[in-house]
Amino acid sequence: MAEKISWLSLSNDVLEDVTSYNEEYKDFLTKAKTERLAVKEIIRIAEANGFKDLEEAIKNGTKVKKGDKLYLNNKEKSVLMFVMGEKKLEEGLRIVGAHIDSPRLDLKPNPLYEASELGFLKTHYYGGVKKYQWTTIPLALHGVVYTKDLKRVDISIGEDDDDPVFTITDLLIHLSREQMQKKLAEGILGEQLNVLMGSIPLADDDDDEKADKSNRVKANVMRIISEKYGIEEDDFKVAEIEVVPAGKARDLGIDRSMIFSYGQDDRVCAFAGLKAILDMKQGEHTALAMFMDKEEVGSQGNTGMASYVLENALHELAALEGEYSALTVRRCLKNSWVLSADVTAAYDPNFDSVYEKNNTAVLGGGIAVAKYTGSGGKGGCNDANAEFLRDVRDIFDKAGVAWQTGELGRVDAGGGGTIAYLLSKYGAEVVDCGTAVLNMHAPNEVTSKFDTYMSYKAYKAFFE
């Protein structure tokens, strides 16, 4: 039996690679706090590494050939990156599909209000969250606003050292007797996730007897926003602003072996896929790294995996390849191999009762291959077949990838899904394959630097 690949088996050179990789990863996490920011950073990196805009190739009718590097920006919320292989498209792709949206809070269309001389923003939570975890922590605002004259304004407050931060209040322990008797899910309700924005009232205008003397804190908050960004309160109705934890990705542990950050589900796999397609050697099959939106709410919408963005892109590529037919695209999808690059649960000994230890991934065990996800009787899952698992194992073993199996806890304990089922519907071979995470869906999640690096190594080997 081959020696088990672990922290202790790594040479000094590889340990340096692990450290270097994770420094880049932390920088990505810090910059890519939302799906829009992730798209911006992915495209910046892609263009710096020679990738060209597919839309320009389509516009100019540029033929594609082996080795061409192309990306598709889908509404600034999802991205596809292709490296054309030696074989024709109809012989299938090698796809690593991740998502770049994460659980968060979104501002409502009419968010700003005042209560008891405090200014607040109303929110609606996005994805599966434990609502109580979002109170009393520093928060930042990121997003896009359009003014009535159609000017775009990008918002980012709370990340720079000189920026203010925001928060959601919680009840003091001295008055929490009733709250502490409630179920965790009811301790903080959705309509209590109101972001504290300010407390100074707008100064009286002595020259204006008709001035509204009520809601002066709200008015002062809006005055500051208007002066800084040139927007009006009515512009929030056509805005897209997200509330996320403020702060940088950090090393965790006295040994600096882990990473502590918001958004690692699923940007840990997204970054690994990005680095893998940048660093891959020429492959026989065309490689595709996917960075999709809306996974946390079911992959719906025109930027999610349930949209036709992949099919549309392949039709365009097939046309640029020459001898176009719809059958080429059908065969391409059917003959593809896919790693659904999403995170899985890491075993947490503090909550042993919900895990089945023999089949749960552990931090530091390498990338996790999950044959199935779903819930209960594998409900809603993609269940990879033995033949494809055989091939994936062979790829990883030959490339020296540390890997383990994983699942989302004990049968009947809960469960969850990924984009895998949306890709397997084409007849493609698909398996879930990603990094194990502690604190999944919390404002800050934990990964092992060993696992993040092995995820990159696994995806690179799969592409090649």
Keywords for this entry:
11 helices; alpha/beta; 28% helix; 464 residues
What's the short version?
The chain is of the alpha/beta class.
Description of the molecule:
The structure is a single chain. The protein is an alpha/beta fold. 28% of the residues lie in helices and 24% in strands. The protein is built from 11 helices and 23 strands. It has helices at 12-31, 35-48, 54-60, 184-187, 216-229, 264-279, 309-321, 326-334, 386-398, 420-424, 449-463, and strands at 52-53, 69-74, 78-83, 93-99, 104-115, 118-126, 139-146, 152-157, 167-168, 195-198, 240-245, 250-252, 258-261, 286-292, 337-340, 344-345, 367-370, 374-375, 403-405, 415-416, 429-434, 436-437, 445-448. The chain has a 9-stranded mixed sheet with strand order 1-2-3-14-4-15-21-17-19, sandwiched between helices. A hairpin with a 5-residue loop joins strand 12 and strand 13 (258-261). The two termini are 25 Å apart. The relative contact order is 0.17.
Number of strands: 23
> Which structural category fits the helices and strands?
alpha/beta
Low-confidence stretches: none
- Assembly context of the chains: single chain
What's the Cα radius of gyration? 24 Å
Major sheet summary line: 9 strands, mixed
What does the overall shape look like?
globular
- Helix share, percent: 25-40%
Overall pLDDT: 94
Number of helices: 11
